[in-house]
Amino acid sequence: MQSFGCRATQADGAALERQLATRGMSQAHSALDADVVVLNTCTVTAAADHDARASIRRIHRENPDAKILVTGCYAQRAPQEIASLAGVTWVVGNSHKHRVAEIAAADELNPAVQAQQRDHDGQSGQPQNFVSLESVALSAPAFTLVGDIFAHTELIAAPVFAGDSIAEKTRPNLKVQDGCDNRCSFCIIPSVRGQSRSMKLDRVIEEANALVSAGYREIVLSGINLGRWGRDFQPQQRFENLVRALLECTGIEKIRISSVEPMDWSDHLIALVAGSPRIAKHAHIPLQSGSDRILRRMHRKYRPWHYAEKIRKIREAMPDAAIGADVMVGFPGETDELFEESRSFIDQLPLTYLHVFTYSSRPGTPSAAMPDQVPVHVARQRNRILREQAAGKSRAFLGNFVGRSLEVITLQAGGDGFTEALSDNFLKVRVAGRHEANNILTVDVTEVGDEDMVAVAQEGIVAHAVQQSCA
């Protein structure tokens, strides 16, 4: 099983692994040893498509007997393109991702698995457009199962962990939302993920409490458009309702919020994050461009002044918070003057890091047909300029913490006498000495490098008092 792309895709992959295990399949050490290889793909850029195709070719070359099942966003967008690749047995879009384990397990020769599958197929209430596993087997290789993603109501997800070793599994990623109702002109994601849909609150609480019972101390909330959680419910709920419920109804010691759009950073959410020691002081807020004209061409729902107001409110409420942004360069129509407008706008904001992306034309999106496409070499140069600007902001932010104390969660021990850790405000820290993973420590920062800082742990492990008040 291999997943590409964003946190949401990683969470989908974790759910698929759980489903495959319940059907009697065990994970191989590598693709070389596998009978079935499941690739959970991304398609947000042309590079993501290329990476998936390269993996397919490599797996087929190194293990020609393995059956390859390709699912995820690329499979939803271009199933026939993937089906034409040598070695691909099945292509299953996001519309039918919930059937991946069923399809993969049915092809195994294990009698127990086949009996379990027959029991499953004999249940009533088969979904509309149900494709029997007999027809799947007869249609292989290159069987495709892709339907209307906007009719898709399933939300599969399971906590996904950082890294492969036990020592690294300290910050489970819990996906609570999928899909997107925005229609940004450059983005293919709505057409491969479908409409926004949310995990029910009681299930989120159940998953979070299961992680607490397993010993985890920090969780990362994620989704395709996370801030829209609850808007598809009747009556509607807000994302801050979810965060408040996690504080009240679970024993999790630290909640970290991944990317949330600027219009969803309400005053209530800002106050909630700022006021609770159990919420990481970290805000990731996509910008895409600091040029008003480009934002309009992108069909983004905010203006630069609106974005700047949100950032300043967050900084005022949380002076030491990490505040990051996604920025795109090379969007069609981005002249030198408009790029400079964006660069200057970013320079004035109290951001601490940037994720800079070069525009990638996606077939079927409005921007793909726009005039004034920016040459690749120009876009790459703009990417370098913003990355250098971001590095300067990051160094300045790091420099604020020399001689100060920070709270960190330990990740894994390094080979140089230090333990890797992550601070509450999203800074990489090397803590002197070897410490067990998944501990929350208070450390004193002694020196700062270009990308991280060195610290000495104070005595004792931090334990946040958690008083649950959920009925």
Write the SSE topology.
Layout: E1 2-3, H1 7-22, E2 36-41, H2 46-62, E3 67-72, H3 73-77, H4 79-83, E4 88-93, H5 100-106, H6 111-121, H7 133-139, E5 143-145, E6 173-178, H8 189-193, E7 197-198, H9 201-213, E8 218-223, H10 239-249, E9 254-257, H11 267-275, E10 282-284, H12 292-298, H13 304-317, E11 322-329, H14 336-348, E12 353-358, H15 376-399, E13 405-413, E14 418-423, E15 428-432, E16 440-448, E17 453-457
Written description of the protein model:
43% of the residues are buried. This protein starts with a strand and ends in a 14-residue tail after the last strand. About 9% of the residues have low confidence. It folds into three domains: 147 residues, 3-Layer(aba) Sandwich (Rossmann fold); 234 residues, tm_1862 like domain (pyruvate-formate lyase- activating enzyme, Alpha-Beta Horseshoe); 53 residues, Nucleic acid-binding proteins (OB fold (Dihydrolipoamide Acetyltransferase, E2P)), CATH 2.40.50.140. It is α/β, with parallel strands linked by helices and 471 residues long. The strands form four sheets. Strands 1-2-3-4-5 form a five-stranded parallel sheet, sandwiched between helices. A hairpin with a 4-residue loop joins β16 and β17.
